[in-house]
Amino acid sequence: MKVTLAQINTHAGDVEKNLQKIKNTISQYASQSDLIVFPEMALCGAPLYDFQNQLALVLQQEKGIKEIHHMVNALGKNLMVVLGAIQREEKGNQSSYYNSAVVIGKDISSYHKQQLPNQGIKNEARYLSSGAEMKVFPLPQGKKLGVLIGEDANSPELLAQLKDQNPDLVVRINSAPFEGESSGQRIQKLQAIQKALRSNFIELNQVGGEGGIIFDGGSTAFTTEGKLLHQPTRFKEAIDLIDTETFGSDFSSLETPAYYDELLSAMQLGLKDYLEKNKISDLVIGVSGGIDSAIDLYLAAQAVSPEHIHAIYMPTAFNSPLSLELSQKLAENLGISLQIGTIQPLLEEYETFADKVLNRPLEGVSHENIQARIRGNILMNIANDYRALVLNNSNKTELALGYGTLYGDLIGGLCPLGDLKKTTVYALAKHINKEKEWIPQGIIERKASAELREGQVDPFDYERDADVVDALLWGGDPQTLAETYPGDSDHLSELAQRVKRARFKAKQLPPVLKLTPQTIGQGTQLPY
Amino acid sequence: MKVTLAQINTHAGDVEKNLQKIKNTISQYASQSDLIVFPEMALCGAPLYDFQNQLALVLQQEKGIKEIHHMVNALGKNLMVVLGAIQREEKGNQSSYYNSAVVIGKDISSYHKQQLPNQGIKNEARYLSSGAEMKVFPLPQGKKLGVLIGEDANSPELLAQLKDQNPDLVVRINSAPFEGESSGQRIQKLQAIQKALRSNFIELNQVGGEGGIIFDGGSTAFTTEGKLLHQPTRFKEAIDLIDTETFGSDFSSLETPAYYDELLSAMQLGLKDYLEKNKISDLVIGVSGGIDSAIDLYLAAQAVSPEHIHAIYMPTAFNSPLSLELSQKLAENLGISLQIGTIQPLLEEYETFADKVLNRPLEGVSHENIQARIRGNILMNIANDYRALVLNNSNKTELALGYGTLYGDLIGGLCPLGDLKKTTVYALAKHINKEKEWIPQGIIERKASAELREGQVDPFDYERDADVVDALLWGGDPQTLAETYPGDSDHLSELAQRVKRARFKAKQLPPVLKLTPQTIGQGTQLPY
Known about the structure:
Helix content of chain A is 39%, strand content 19%. Chain A is of the alpha/beta class. The first copy, chain A, folds into two domains: 2-249, Nitrilase/N-carbamoyl-D-aminoacid amidohydrolase (4-Layer Sandwich), CATH 3.60.110.10; 265-459, Rossmann fold (3-Layer(aba) Sandwich). The longest helix of chain A is centred in the last third of the chain and has 23 residues, at 364-386.
């Protein structure tokens, strides 16, 4: 039996576009396939958040399923298609909506997902109903196909129920967001599922970026003995053909890329898809000579061509000559032209306004913040001019600590580093430089500073504090943390206060690229 | 039996503070009471979002419950206290967390909430476990107390189970956010619950504002016959004493305030508590001579004294003399001093920067947006100077349409009108002026304009479009809407596109004061 794993990149909410892609894939691979499998929610795309049970979207999907059915039957062969969609069932005058695996062959049949997730970015339990039973679908030659959807496979009971029905092949369609797992970890989890089933097992996961959420793909297949027989492709579309007759015969050894390589691939996918799906061609970046903007510029250079990158360095009297020098070197390394313009006259005009109108000199925090906000304004000017996206250069540690200026350096359309601790940011920079010094060593080695006043440096020891700040962000208790983290408990309480006070800033952030299980603003909701 | 309804205003996450208030209330009312009832989650406060099952918070509550128990017993009378808290139960090495009604008398016993909500701002089903059974607690003289928590009362099955146990008195502790219901509507719902129970019935609802969410109180009591016997107090703390012996004997007639009066009370509570709970004393408002900033200035004047209001009018050459005149009249009416300062020199300095550094004249959208952003900067300067909160003057229709400038007029710490349609904003202004013309009539009558270029007026017919824009915001289908709303379907499709494109702005808003069932950013998550 020949199975095509169609790991396609869908568009959340664009049924028309997804349908076209699905039909194109079927057209292209039908002749070589007995079964073509698409991801969970392939027809509607994911995540849909509050729109999962939106009637118009579901009606579009019903129409799409009919079209695919018609197409499959017109092919005149025993082709089967499994694809994810939201389906509606009417009982009395009540509609129920399901996360379904639609099995399209001669007929159309469905399996409805039973384990509806209600955590992180997934809120299916809010909008959808649970399916009532596990079942199998007939395959040619009396064989049986079992279907699982996403979190169904986390339930030992459901796996046992499916095993009891003795399927020859089980397909799990999935829509699992990337949360930092390596290929190795992902495969271990899949192996555990296969072990519980003891059948041939295919994993078909969504791939692509959607509003800062990255679906990593990594679709693959296992023999009945649990032998991995397909090199998973992560972070990009992949259409792979598998022959169940030769299952296991031609697969040599698994490549597992280094963690930081996978992280970079994830970030690149997230950024590129964010641009593409929002039809944005240009990026704007404020370069400071610091580590965060340096990595963002590197990511930008990977995502779009140099003429679509608007990089600008905007000093005041507080910025050191070294910052300019390092910014220029960085831009040169990446082949990007760097605009340079002092904002000192603008700063002075605000000082004049404060003196004349507000009757109060611009000083202290006001004087620091206005510099960041002037820069924010200029970046947005450029964005307005070119319909471009401003990258927000913040990292997770700074966001947690509130070490950033609202409407200043906290602006932007996407925050690529916002889910990485400052220490991870440094490690990532070193990894980027492994083959070639893209990021000037001086940027990695210098002391972090916002350069908003004379002699300012970041008032944190990131090596010591980054981990504990992350724990505090999610409600960690300073007293409990004091047992595992270095530093006295006064210091921890002070950090905890700071993190708590900073939450209001996190509520006004652009979407953060999700790279860990707990991401600011992506499936999380911090209180008070 | 004497019951004290302690409709107290708690602080989400501040167990220490809530405990103190609960203990003070018990001290003060113990001598007159047989039973004192506090709201759902009284000890921890609500909403807690991701922190509902935070261990440190639960341990604080366990300690607090012990203290209250000790206190109640030390009083040497048969006092009972019912209060809401999150409780933990250990089974094996797994902890379960419950939304509980803790019944404190000689012993401590609990009822665990069974219907865990998973909608709007409430995500209890994510973090808490459901209780397993309905039960009653012994009252003096062999009588029985039934307890319900919040959404439990939405379940006919649970109401029937409780009725089967023949309670003499049922108390529902609640934590229901205000969503625009009138007192009359709220009481009708309570009557339906009482009708299903046919016992004495007490509703005890949380009151207070928390991060833009308003709990409206409205606690009250019914006789076994369903007769309302207590005037509910909404939108403020209230400690009320009821005698079950005289139930129904001294209550004359219910006052139901006008809708806009209740709406204003809700908004005032939401704003005042936002300030108080975040320890902010001062407000900053950019006054434009338009309707939205006029209402916000009125609300500010109700919330804090004039010397704590920093109102500023910041014209460019595009602002009409009428705008200044109306702004001055408004400030005068409200007894607030208005600062006035042209931002023209700042605008010109940005024009110079664009010419010199960006090599592109500042024009079109860039030229419009920068004006809003300069104003945003100045408002934030003032906020930084006085540790004050900037009010965001947007209304729901403009937010839905994206008719606002990110980091410009969309800045702020709280958005009081963000859940009201433009048409409601006008109606509210007229209501405010009923007794006295606080808001100059000219502001209500003039055509809405952002005044960012010559002769600009808002490109919408709000009377015609406000309702349909609201429907589109939540995923309404233009085709379906065309059947019920005036206007051709091309116009609706255009509005739908606009609303969809505007969603990225809504993701970076300050907290919106929740006044309807569906509020931007408060318990809602719009996709793609």
